[in-house]
User: Fold this.
Amino acid sequence: MAGFGGIAAVGKSLELVLNTGYQATQPVDGALTQAVLVRTDDIDPPAMALPRPGLSILLYRVDFNKVTRPDWSAVGAEDGNAYLPLDLHYLLTAWADNAEHEHRVIGRTLQILERPAGLGAAQLLPGGDWGPGESVQFFLEDLPTEDLMRTFDSLRCNFRLSVPYLARIVVIATNGGEPPPPVLTSVRGLRSGTGR
Assistant:
């Protein structure tokens, strides 16, 4: 199972897989398309230093996987480790100088990510402390238009052509042999013999 670096490793692995795919077949003739892992500050104006043509990869939400969490809790009860299965929600946004080029970037991105195998051990960067045989699947997320628009409302940039993707399942594990955090005790507001 992955360590705490698994979330970052998935994002960097996704960036690498997309850039490798773009190198094999460029979406825009005569131009080098680049995928870049970004923060919200990178896409909020005026910080618009993204490559064109390009694709920004924004991790906008991390959520526990509701379907597998009970099963992982049962595994943890058996071996003394804690397991947190996560879904990583990405927003992939095209950046280009015209609509046709943005459409080509999105089209090539979808073609690269719709591989049946997802990201296996060979594609996952080592910063995640992956276990043997571990993999992460990528799915085109069924995100209602209203939710997508609300995401852009929370950002300061205008709506752009984007595709929501879900990385499932990244299981963050803790080692049961780690010492527990120290217990801190504090007593506040204790009064004795005052009758109050």
Remarks:
- The first strand starts at residue 34 and ends at 38.
